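Re: the pair you flagged

First of the two:
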Amino acid sequence: MIGLDARLLCVRTLIRSIESKSYSNLALTQALMDAAETSPQDSGLCRRIFRGTLERMITLDACIAAHSKRPPEKLDLPVLCVLRCGIYELLYLHTPESAAVNLWTEAVKRLKKTSAAGMVNAVLRGFIRGGKVIPMPEDALAAMSVQYSVPVPLLEALLHDYDRETVTAFLEDAADAPPVYIRRNPLFASEEKFLQIIAAEPVPEIPCAYRLRRRGETAEVPTVIDGQETVPMDPFRSGLVTEAKPMGRGWHVQDLASQLCCLALDPQPGETVLDVCAAPGGKTFTIAELMQDKGTVYAYDLHEKRVGLIRRGAEKIGLQCIKAQTGDARKTEKPQAERVLCDVPCSGFGVIRRKPEIRYKSLDEAAGLPEIQYAILEASARAVKSGGVLVYSTCTVLRRENEDVVRRFLAAHPEFRPERPWQEIPALAGYGQEMTTLFPQMLGSDGFFIAKMRKA
């Protein structure tokens, strides 16, 4: 059946991703690389359904529950995933309804769940007959959970920390395809040369930052811009915006929040800078570029394999001042430095638009993180020279991992004083607070937290 292969690839990858609890972007990238003969059209369809289904699982399960005799949690995972994908396609894509029902009914058979084919067919057709309505609970919080596909405990945590308007805007942004930002390496590419080859738009507030145009806005972009002849290709097909090919000699993919974090650190040429939790290296590369590749950037990570990512990335981008090595951020003795960046492990709830599976994590899994974060911050502070800068950052928006950790640290270390970031950049100065939480509705970045502190 035409289109069946793309749907089978999608649902099988979804099953593996859920079972292994792996990052969805890595699982999908690997699946598409393994299915090398898949057409661009099938790859695009697979990506769309896979990502959309992950983003909206609570919404989809509410629809399934309204038309299935068995609740979603009682269904075999392959059957449940087929129904989720089928409901998603009926709700959000323009596939003819009968074709979608037939394809997903056949898909469940190919997954060796033939006995469930009748049920899948009945649930999908019942959903169509019912007008494809999403059932909303009477309870306001439960309805919000179904609408935005966010678990109630996470909603409660967000609404505890922020007003409803801020939370709603954040969750609405997470339902859309996220923008892809690129950081130009000014040491290897002028803006004029960069924009001749890379189809991107400058971000006015942030020097050397660009938003990659989406498919439909532009036809093709290259993989490198180092003066050599390049082969144009679709970035979403080639892996440009995935883990497969995230950089070229003149650029690397990096969200605005990470770029803003490096601008808050404000490293200068010739300085010694520490990036204590550096892998996979995006911030390390930007720090080195801001230093004009002069001085030393020590980049640490706990695992040698991830340290290798930093080394290879620095080599590919053409940066010489980076020294990547293994080290536990809480224990390893580090050289004294003018600037220290602590981008600590966190719950990651600020990046749910890029990693949709994160929203389903239990808050209990993150309960112990503040102690780890505080230990890293304490250990890193010992490496800051007098008059030096310490930046604490996370990619979450939960205050228990952000403001609470920093306030505890400042209370124990009066020699450090909070400082507003970006005061030398007029377009950004108004966003910088002594503790800054970034939301997509502000500058278009991921959800992120930055606290800049200076040692007396």
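Second of the two:
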Amino acid sequence: MFVLKSAAPGVRVISVPTDKFKTNIIEVSVAVPLDENAAANALLASLLTRTCKAYPDFSKLNAKLDELYGASLGSYVGKTGDAQVISFYVTCLDDRFSLDGESITKECLKLLAGMIFEPNIKNNSFGKEALATEKRLLVNSIKAELDDKQTYALKKCTELMCANEPYGRPETGTVEEVESVKMSEVYAAWKNLLKIGRFHIVAVGNFDVDEITGLFAGKFEKINREPCTIDTIFFKKGLHFKRGVEQFQMKQGKLVFGFRTGMENSNDNYYAEKVMVDIFGGGTYSKLFANVREKMSLAYYCSAKLIDSKGIVFVQSGIDTDKEKAVSTAIINQLDDMRTGKFDDETVAASKRALRERLTLSTPGSICSWYKSFILEDEIRTPEEIADGYDKVTKEEICEAAMKLSVDKIYMLEAVESEVESVED
């Protein structure tokens, strides 16, 4: 079970007490609108974990982490619904294993809070060289996505499908946006984060939840908080159908279907949607794997994934480029079978077992990620509650959920012998 506290307006603290692990983790996640400030926010995330006021250079910070039995800290950026989520975390050895009763967790908590609220800033600047370094690293990371064509194709389909929605934006901004960010924009992003961000603090291990709540309440006392409201856009049906295509010199084509689910919010028909998508393209028992990949041998892989925070489903497949039409037809045929109930009770049972097994959280990080996923939700549910919800889904509800799926966009990354320019139909 978990303990929920409020440290300030728009600041929740979730503690999951456990002594199962040797290490503890605390993660501070902040949700802000996913907009033109994405690149500045992404750079800010990295700059805040480079140094801080108390430890203004790498050597001092690393020495402090060494003192804390090799504690580690970092940051990363993602998106949930139409929100950009900036996360800062620290992992450390549990106090039970320290020498002379040292309080490692308390020191790590203070260090993490210091990095967020008391950064290494002089004259409203994080340092020209530091910003230049983080820009270079982030640009390299964005460009490196081209090396993973599966990820690249999914992102391109997302951009095509949600071109006029915040979710269509890259969570770290584009290369051009990153390169054009000014120091004043990064400083403004920090001030804005503390003012409007929706803070979601998750601690897993042996933490004192009142101590965490008190620390962050004190940090926010002098900040004029105006927590933002993030309303994710949901479309009940596919909009104007469009097929995007790009060509790369590679051996295997990548085909991505983007579907709208008919969900009106992240909780709308959630359990039936999850089970339906899993039977459609989740495990080895799924329609796409068993038929499109195995029986028909049309794809090297073929799977479906529900993005419940946005109400969309992506079907991804690796194929021979000249089989695109056959694969597309096969995918839609499998969906039609889902709509008409052409799947047996054994498959439903296998899906529910698999979904329940995936809710087995066996590390501090996985537990932390679970509770972090509710950053935009009013209600926080345990894995057990979710698993019980899956068990109650009926075959009729699965068929109804499949009926609501509608194709919105298709993106094809064609494999060719030489590089050519991208085009769109």
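Residues 128-144 form the longest helix (17 residues).

-B.
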